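Dear colleague,

Thank you for sharing your sequence with our group. We've completed the structure prediction you requested, and as agreed, I am returning the results in plain text so they can be pasted directly into your records. Please verify that the sequence below matches your submission; if there's any discrepancy, let me know and we will rerun it promptly.
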Amino acid sequence: MGEAVKLLFMLLIVFGIFQGISPNVDDLSQAAETAYIEGDFQEAAKLYQQMIDEGVQTGEVYFNLGNAYYQLHDLGSSLVNYLRAAQLMPRDEDLRLNIARVRAQRVDASIASVAFSDQITEWESSWLSKAEVDSFLLVLWWLSCGCLSAYALLPHWRKWVRWAAIICCAILIFVGFANGIRVIVESLSPSAVIVGENVPVLTGSDSKYMQIFELHAAGEVHILERRNDWVRVQLPDLQEGWVQADSVEII
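Please find the predicted structure tokens below.
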């Protein structure tokens, strides 16, 4: 019994030590905000990144980290974090404005995607986060089931329930189809941003291959394949090539 008490006491001490080592999230947030206000954007970016590493992965934190990188004139890292924030709060007008500002300042011109799957994914993600889509689909599923059940069990209501069932099922199928495309696109060819200033795009996964064109900071691509320290990227207009893996960051 005495040994068990001693062991419990030691565990509590160790737990307390690690709790003391772990930075307080509120303190980090306040310190990051203070650093940003004082113009120490490098320190602010470091503290916001520390918050993310501690598990505070909210749209607001990614947005603030993107602001810090923007002030440091790091368009690539800024856009990465803005787009990560957009996944969590897609309808935020200030965020949309900042994304548009970065895209307008980058060297590579914005290219409209020619792939239908990419267009569907961009349309859905610009309005609903993943969590919101899941909740919406769940509500539509139960509404559809309820309408179909009412149609089968309540003959006197069939005239009204029929149209409700058709509408609910149609929306469920459409949203489910769009979400399925989004899941496939994001899993097979995740979106990424060029974070290097001048990144050569080669015909193969080695520096000995021929350069076909060059990408610049904040350029947007899809990752198609990874091979050692290289990744094969695809532009919205479907051009492809290989770049070094550390020059691109997945959203």
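Summary note from our side: The chain has a mean pLDDT of 88.

Kind regards,
the structure core
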